[in-house]
Design brief:
The complex is a heterotetramer, with two copies of chain A (about 160 residues) and two copies of chain B (about 80 residues).
Chain A lengths: L1 H8 L6 E5 L5 H6 L8 E8 L3 E2 L2 E10 L1 H18 L4 E7 L1 E4 L3 E9 L2 H18 L2 E7 L4 E3 L4 H5 L5
Parallel strand pairs in A: 1-5
Antiparallel strand pairs in A: 2-7, 3-4, 4-6, 4-8, 5-7, 8-9
Helix pairs in contact in A: 3-4
Chain B lengths: L1 E7 L2 H6 L3 E6 L4 H7 L1 H4 L9 E4 L2 E2 L11 E5 L6
Parallel strand pairs in B: 1-5
Antiparallel strand pairs in B: 1-2, 3-4, 3-5
């Protein structure tokens, strides 16, 4: 209760996009979006799955060019804020080697009403996936590996999530 | 002739075997840089599937290159 | 790591809708949706906000007719599963007295791709809000209280989130 | 005449001052039950904004009522 009141009293924090080699903690992230005017929260997580385009995937390796990923990501958050009526919007994208089930990307949005939360969350993840300088390499069960969108996937127009 | 720094990322870096290099070449646009370094980055992708940044700003392939610029060559992105 | 592997080995659990007087723990709930084939997770939370339709709200009181709320809620989850390609879909709705910032309802969906997760999550919350025998009474700063949709809200066609 | 159990929820229960009662009345549909008990539930809402369940199954206002049924009268719902 004390913690909750503290959160409500502080000023709104700026929308943030972070790129990090550390495990994503969605629960602590969503708490940062608490706001007494918020009636709705929508969260999206991209998880590493064991199958992509028919290939058995063992793990994924993410590389980001962090300065521009952050700059472009915060542009995306600003666009979402300009288009939808939001209270907070945050995003974190992982880098490094990820295992099946790991959270690769988290997007969270709070707003007064649910429509805006859903719309903005979807807008953000759709834009992040195609605009941020982030790349992923899939490591397959057969020992091969491949950069997604560069090799196999461009032939089929597939994306991971 | 312009002296520029070219940086390679992800598959382009792996293909080039280097992170970056300084080149003195005859180029006017970012597309020219992409084509001039094809032997390095080895892209099988058309330039339109790739992205470019100039001096840490996202740019486009028609952008002019100036002497001293740093050109970042990004293969097709795949975040999320 | 041991925990993650355990989760992946167990069979898929049935889609579940629960009604509970206990605080909702979104983090433990989302973990139940882990699945090695899941590339996307979408979560929605309805939070108690301090303002509705211009009235300053101090707290909300939820009443549910649990047997039918569960039966109808599980129908909604089954419809979502029939319409979208889902791996898991769960929902929990609170009852009792809730304070500003409390989570009144949580919906979580996992699927291979993000489009289905967003669509299904939205379908579920939209349907829950209009079909489940659940009622809420707002308690206002001026000492008044009112049943939402029964008194004030029907005049304006407003809902909370 | 049918003997039915009527249960009141939320605002209807508060207005009625009771959770439920057993009535022996002349009714054929759920709507008849709603109208016959208006003095209890005191709804200012049209029946179409409310919901009804019969014997723990969601039903509709045109449904037939049988002797021995339990009729649940639900004011407009507001989950979430």
């Amino acid at each position: 209760m004390a913690i909750r009141c503290f959160c409500f009293r502080r000023l709104l924090v700026a929308d943030v996009l972070a790129v990090s080699p550390d495990e994503i903690d969605p629960d602590s992230l969503r708490r940062q979006l608490f706001n007494p005017r918020a009636g709705a929260y929508c969260g999206f997580e991209g998880w590493v799955r064991n199958l992509n385009d028919g290939h058995e995937v063992l793990r994924l390796e993410y590389e980001a060019y962090e300065p521009l990923a952050i700059k472009e990501g915060e542009k995306v958050l600003a666009e979402a804020r300009a288009e939808y009526s939001l209270l907070q919007a945050h995003c974190v994208h992982r880098t490094g080697m990820l295992e099946i089930g790991d959270c690769a990307v988290w997007v969270g949005v709070s707003s007064a009403h649910r429509h805006e939360a859903f719309q903005a969350c979807r807008y953000i993840i759709d834009a992040l996936k195609v605009r941020l300088p982030i790349w992923k390499k899939e490591h397959y069960a057969n020992g091969d590996s491949g950069w997604v969108n560069c090799e196999r996937c461009t032939e089929h127009g597939q994306s991971t999530t | 002739m312009k002296t520029i720094r070219v940086r390679y990322f992800a598959m382009f870096r792996e293909n080039a075997g280097i992170d970056e290099e300084t080149l003195t070449i005859e180029v006017s646009t970012a597309t020219d840089v992409f084509e001039a370094t094809r032997g390095r980055h080895g892209s099988s992708e058309p330039v339109g599937h790739c992205k470019v940044a100039i001096n840490d700003e996202m740019s486009d392939w028609q952008a002019d290159i100036s002497d001293g610029d740093t050109v970042l060559l990004f293969p097709p992105v795949a975040g999320g």
